[in-house]
């Protein structure tokens, strides 16, 4: 006996029950208004069906015997164990056939409570370059999604990371601030309190330098130590010949130590040490030796100083000794006036350059060098005399005469070469009449050429006068 496939599919569709919920498949823990409904559509009115509700295929949740067109109802109180896949099985008593519905996954959501942020290291204080891990914890709640926020004094931003933990492998100074997280599960959301992350910056290698000051008859060196970066407080220590002599802790990145000194005497090798909780760092060494200005000399380029207008003059002032020299320039007995268009000085002030000399730059130049810490002690160099000459332009007449003379010499040399050549080859004999005739012809040609040259010169002069 053949079975019609279409009738078999209809029979299966009738046998399999339909399972539905009276609300969302995501429910709150403890919810008591949840109900499952199970029924077989288009079943016969007198058919008795036994419905069984299962969770995860094996756990029986409830049973119901339905007669006629009655729909099976399963009221359910949502507990911690309620989450899972629910299916409904229908058994027909008349035929003992069974059908199984499609599944519905029930998600049990626990309200979010007590959200906090945990830091590793626990103090949330890290050095720049170290690792920082922040973890978002919720005392209660499931199926959580996380969101991180970073807040500075000027802005609040959402971080890209969305996991429970966020890790900064090498913390930077600008990543210091307040961090918070949000835990959400579509039912409720929990917000943590801010946790302040402090990023400490190790102090950078300091620089060291000094200046000298005069107090009546005594002199002192002011030795300055300065670091570019570092979180305060910073402890600065001054070492002389590797021995600690002074220290000070402050909230600034620089300090000045004052020491009495004697001029022209080596006061020692000084080093600055800086520390703010990490390994101490040291500056380069600095020898403190203060010498007065001695042996001032002045040189020029070119030497001697005889130049034409628009040529360059360069003066260089040198000292044999002097730790802090200050250079001044004098011209014809007066201090050189500030005129950047006329001359320039290098940064140190000991090189004077006049790029384009004029007649007003004629005169004597003197370099005076003083001690920066004692302006009463100055030494002058010997004076240098500069002579700037004006270039006289060559006239057109002089150029014409010179050209004619040059042309005459060229002709004479050419004729001499020709005569010498003919004489050597025997073509020219000065005693023969032919030779005398040629000589006369040559003399006549030379007179005409010289007359032409003279006429050209007259014409050129007349043109010039016009």
Offer a quick outline of the entry.
This protein has 466 residues and is an alpha+beta fold. The chain has helices spanning 5-15, 396-425, 433-465; strands at 18-21, 26-28, 34-39, 48-55, 59-67, 72-76, 84-92, 98-100, 104-109, 113-120, 125-127, 132-140, 145-151, 156-158, 165-168, 177-184, 189-191, 195-200, 207-215, 218-226, 234-240, 243-250, 254-261, 266-275, 281-282, 286-289, 294-301, 306-308, 313-321, 325-331, 334-335, 344-345, 351-354, 363-371, 374-380, 384-389. The strands form eight sheets. Strands 2, 4, 5, 7, 8 and 9 form a six-stranded mixed β-sheet that branches. Strands 11, 13, 14, 16, 17 and 18 form a six-stranded mixed β-sheet that branches.
Main features:
six-stranded mixed beta sheet, alpha+beta, disordered C terminus
Task: Look at the helices and sheets and give the structural class.
Answer: alpha+beta
Mean pLDDT metric: 86
Count of helix runs: 3
Radius of gyration: 54 Å
Give the % helix. 10-25%
In terms of quaternary structure, the protein is single chain
Given as residue ranges, the uncertain stretches (5+ residues, pLDDT < 50) are 1-13, 432-443, 453-466
Distance between the termini: 140 Å
Largest sheet: 6 strands, mixed
Query: Approximately what portion of the residues adopt beta-strand conformation?
Result: over 45%
Shape: elongated
Number of strands: 36
Describe the protein in words:
The chain has 466 residues and is α+β, with helices and mostly antiparallel strands. Helix content is 16%, strand content 47%. The strands form eight sheets. Strands 2, 4, 5, 7, 8 and 9 form a six-stranded mixed β-sheet that branches. Strands 11, 13, 14, 16, 17 and 18 form a six-stranded mixed β-sheet that branches. Strands 28, 30, 31, 34, 35 and 36 form a six-stranded mixed β-sheet that branches. Strand 21 (234-240) and strand 22 form a beta hairpin. Helix 2 (396-425) packs antiparallel against helix 3. It is elongated, with a radius of gyration of 54 Å. The N and C termini lie far apart (140 Å).
């Amino acid at each position: 006996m053949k079975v019609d496939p279409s009738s078999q599919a209809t029979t299966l569709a009738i046998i399999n029950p339909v399972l539905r919920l009276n609300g969302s498949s995501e429910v709150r823990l403890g919810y008591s208004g949840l109900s499952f409904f199970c029924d077989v559509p288009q079943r016969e009115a007198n058919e008795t069906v036994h419905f069984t509700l299962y969770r995860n295929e094996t756990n029986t949740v409830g049973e119901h015997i339905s007669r006629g067109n009655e729909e099976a109802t399963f009221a359910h109180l949502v507990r911690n164990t309620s989450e899972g896949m629910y299916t409904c099985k229908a058994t027909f008593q008349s035929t003992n056939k069974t059908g199984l519905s499609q599944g519905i996954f029930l998600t049990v959501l626990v309200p979010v409570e007590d959200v906090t942020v945990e830091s590793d290291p626990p103090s949330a204080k890290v050095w720049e370059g170290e690792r920082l891990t922040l973890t978002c914890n919720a005392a209660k709640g499931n199926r959580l999604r996380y969101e991180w926020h970073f807040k500075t004094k000027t802005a609040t931003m959402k971080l890209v990371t969305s996991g429970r933990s966020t890790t900064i492998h090498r913390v930077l100074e600008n990543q210091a601030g307040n961090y918070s997280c949000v835990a959400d599960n579509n039912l409720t959301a929990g917000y943590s309190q801010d946790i302040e992350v402090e990023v400490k910056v190790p102090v950078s290698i300091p620089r060291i330098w000094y200046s000298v000051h005069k107090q009546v008859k005594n002199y002192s060196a002011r030795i300055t130590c300065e670091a570019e970066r570092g979180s305060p407080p910073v402890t600065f220590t001054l070492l002389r010949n590797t021995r600690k002599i002074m220290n000070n802790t402050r909230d600034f990145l620089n300090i000045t130590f004052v020491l009495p000194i004697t001029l022209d005497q080596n006061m020692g090798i000084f080093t600055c040490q800086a520390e703010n909780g990490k390994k101490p760092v040291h500056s380069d060494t600095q020898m403190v030796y203060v010498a007065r200005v001695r042996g001032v000399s002045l040189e020029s380029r070119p030497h001697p100083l005889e130049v034409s207008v628009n040529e360059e003059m360069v003066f260089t002032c040198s000292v044999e000794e002097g730790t802090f020299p200050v250079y001044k320039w004098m011209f014809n007995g007066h201090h050189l006036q500030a005129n950047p268009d006329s001359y320039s000085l290098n940064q140190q002030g000991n090189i004077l350059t006049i790029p384009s000399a004029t007649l007003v730059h004629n005169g004597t130049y003197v370099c005076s060098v003083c001690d920066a810490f004692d302006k009463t002690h100055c030494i002058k160099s010997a004076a240098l005399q500069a002579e700037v000459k004006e270039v006289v332009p060559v006239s057109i007449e002089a150029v014409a005469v010179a050209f004619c003379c040059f042309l005459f010499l060229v002709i004479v040399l050419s004729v001499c070469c020709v005569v010498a050549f003919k004489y050597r080859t025997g073509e020219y004999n000065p005693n023969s009449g032919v030779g005398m005739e040629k000589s006369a012809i040559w003399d006549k040609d030379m007179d005409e050429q010289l007359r032409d040259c003279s006429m050209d010169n007259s014409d050129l002069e007349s043109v010039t006068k016009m």
